[in-house]
Hints:
By secondary structure, chain A is of the alpha+beta class. Chain A is 30% helix and 17% strand. Chain A has helices at 33-40, 59-65, 84-87, 89-106, 109-113, 128-138, 161-165, 245-248, 252-255, 271-282, 284-306, 347-364, 416-422, 443-455, and strands at residues 25-28, 44-45, 54-56, 76-77, 121-124, 142-146, 156-158, 187-191, 204-215, 218-230, 268-270, 317-325, 331-337, 376-377, 380-385. In chain A, helix 4 (89-106) crosses helix 11 (284-306). The longest helix of chain A is centred in the middle third of the chain and has 23 residues, at 284-306. Chain A is globular, with a radius of gyration of 24 Å. The two termini of chain A are 27 Å apart. By secondary structure, chain B is mainly alpha-helical. Helices cover 55% and strands 2% of the residues of chain B. Chain B has helices at residues 13-22, 24-38, 48-57, 60-77, 85-109, 130-138, 166-172, 193-209, 212-219, 228-235, 244-259, 265-278, 287-298, 301-306, 352-365, 380-394, 396-404, 409-418, 427-440, 445-456, 458-462, 467-473, 484-497, and strands spanning 315-318, 324-327. Chain B has a two-stranded antiparallel sheet with strand order 1-2. In chain B, a hairpin with a 5-residue loop joins strand 1 (315-318) and strand 2. Chains A and B meet through helix 10, helix 13 and helix 14 of A and helix 13, helix 21, helix 22 and helix 23 of B.
Amino acid sequence: MPKHLGSSGPIHRPKGEGRASGPVKFRTSFSNTIYDVLCAKGWEETDSEHDWDVHWAEREWVFEVFDQMHLEPHQRLNHFRNAKEICRKDLLIKNLKKRKRQLEKEGSYEEATQYDFFPVTFNLPREYALFVEEFKRQGGLWIMKPIGSAQGKGIFLFSKLSEISEWRTDYRYRPGNNKQEKEADAYVVQRYINNPYLVGGKKFDLRLYVVVTSFSPLNVWIYRTGFARFTNTRYNDDVSDITNSFMHLTNVAIQKTADDYDKRTGGKWDLRRLKLHMISQFGAETTDAVFWEMQMIIIRSLLSVSSVMINDKHCFELYGYDIMIDDTLKPWLIEVNASPSLSASTQEDYVMKCEMLNDVLDIVDVEGKLKGDEEHVGGFDLVYENGFVDMDPKHRGWSSYLGSGIDRGPKKNGKGRRQQQQQAQPPENGGGGGEMGEKPRLAALDQYSKFLQTAAKGLK
Amino acid sequence: MDHTTPQTPVTPSSALLSSLHLDPFLHLSLLHLKKNLIHSPKSTPHTVESIKSAMLELGLTPKIRNLAYSLSCSEKDRKSTPEILQVEQARDDWKQSIYDELLSVCSERGVSIIGPDSAQNKKIRYIFDSEDLFDAIKRIPCSSNMNASLCHNYGLIKLRLSTPDHSALRTKFSELHPCNRQYGMDETFLGSSKFIQHRQEVGVKVLQESYVPISRQYARYGIPAGLRPEIYRVCLNLPRRIGAKEGEYYNSLREKAKNMRYNVVDELFEMDSQTIISNSMSFFPFLENITNVVLAFSRDSWVVQNSTYTAHESIKYEMSDGSTTSIPSSGVQPFKGFVNYIAPLSLVYEDEERIYFTFRGMYSRLWCKLNVISSDSGTLIHLCKTFEDLLLSWDPALFMHLLSVNVAPLSIAFTWIHLAFTNVLETEQLLLLWDRLVGYDDLLLLPVLSAAIFTFRSETLMCTSSAQEVKDILDNNSGRRLKVMPILQAALFGECFK
């Protein structure tokens, strides 16, 4: 991959300059994990329109207000102006197809053929005729997705053209009160992946987290872990079963209404668990290739929109990538979310999201704590910085950090009940605490701590 | 019970031949061999070589070799010491109590053990769990013909059983010494790619041989995840790849489970599966697979015929046609936590059949010893005593301190041993431990690891002043971060690696 034209080297962003001294001021209308994380950093909440350092905003705010605002150099906002270029299903497809054509025009045919990670898609109603032509040629199972939808609402499957001619008139699919009324009719229709890779006979999709701090030049941080979201029922590719939305649509929001949804597990595996499972089924090499493909999907999709995105040094964005793997182990891009869900369905989920969001804020670095040449921040790795970033030699043998363990060192507050009980009397040997407090007995046990750190990065 | 070197079979050839006849595949192959090579009208005097090569071609050689090896091992397995009276009594009582409990649950619900179940939605309770087994063992008194004062020891196991000492363990588990590169340690260090590659190549060769003792020796150093499915099978004397016959057999078991339901017993297995598997972060996608496996297991009379020990008693039920059937056919009654033995295999094998046969093999060789009340070495009581003796010798101060805060160390370690650490370690580590259990064909590492964990946490434990604090430090959640191999190596070979 050729490096982009433009500046090379690490991005120097104004670190803390212009920011008033004192605790960081944040503004947000969210009340879930991100709010907890912002507070936990010791930052102060503010309602002020202008006097904030970090604003974790809803996208509506960005659409409505941002254009009229002037931001100080130190202020940071969690959305780019036109993230719709990557998040709206029709625009994403348009941009991906455009990039593919551009590469072909440039003569980079091999790279252009790699842009085959999105299922055949058409924007409706504009490309209806093209869709019908493809449908008549190949048939199969298709999925209809309203452009503005989230959490699986309004999505349905079909295999006969007659089913969609009824669709517009059917009251079930009338879109709800949506600010974008004039786009409410617009859908994308996409060939459905009817041969998913199954685990335990169950279908799942993957949610990966990506932070972009700049589009031009392109800077991409990818979180090492993520989720595999399972359906609760066994997968059955019998076309007549497609009305069983629960089986096919894995969005957590829909799963939660299924009768046998289990609150405790939330039907998710973390990415590392999936990777280990795949290694034992398919071997390390094959698994590595799959995870590498997923990373390349992320990079290529961002490259496709980087030229149309309005770059702004105040902006950063956290994307939730939805990816599905088919039974040939090919990953497919389903969609990109600029407002990935930050609510947690279980305790583990809560911890994972808080850790991730905390890392995002560390990358944004309003306090100027980073040197600027870091390639790892918390669980995020800098994968693309105006060009691919080399893998850390410790991870030799693996093409991507995705799915490897995150090393956070000893837990500072993992002492639990025992600590509380001991608060009345100080421990006898002055601080013999938690799991990492034991003095190693042997030189070999020094290896143990090192082992914990390296082993946390995954099977080697 | 050292099986590191293959022994020449000591059994008479007639025993070998009769065993061969029991295996239908071998039987048919030998008949074929006889007919076509030896007795064919066109045959010429055959040299040993041509028969040998014909056998190799038919795939007989590995099978016969493994059969001979397992026969030679089973000779050694045979009990050489008579049973202690108290233990025998306790075993009978235990079996009886389970039996009675099962029947009483049936009558509470107003159903018979087989037949239509009218009490569909009534809440059901487990008939026993680890704690009950622990109580049954604790109750066993010291032999009555010994002087009472000699019986006094600090542990909960009063029986005077001889347990291996530290140097015996170091010899037995010499493969685990830090000077040997192995999985669980070396694959994680910088520059390990050569080791990983080497291990992979050796493993492939080992699988080509498909000879039980070689596979077991290989397993002792830990198995790469990609090879584990087949190596486990060979170590358990199964062909490395599953065959059509095994698939059919498994399906017949599933049919039996569908056609004739065991009231209460099936429900308990299902409840166990539902409770443990659905709540497990790692195993929840495999809930149906695991439930199917456990129900099929309960229909398999192979288990009771081939397990080293029979843990429980089946209920003999007279059918309408006069025949009697055992319920469950496997001779293994449901208890809380049983599915823990199955769950980790769902991450090793993709499909139910392979999970099933490996699980069945592991149960019949290993897990049955954890569920039987016996004084034989290598079984539960002996393992518990080994734990107590080891901890006492490694860290007497800690042992005494724990007693002083009213915690018997065995009361914490018991479930670790009974459930083979399934409720403690995270799966990757658990499988590395199981690699060694399968490789040594022995459960001795369970008490060794238990004692090693206590000594690893010794300094923190010495600071405790109440039983609750001890339990918090050693609770199962804290085990999720433990790495098995460093702890074992430190405990066994520590102090500058004697």
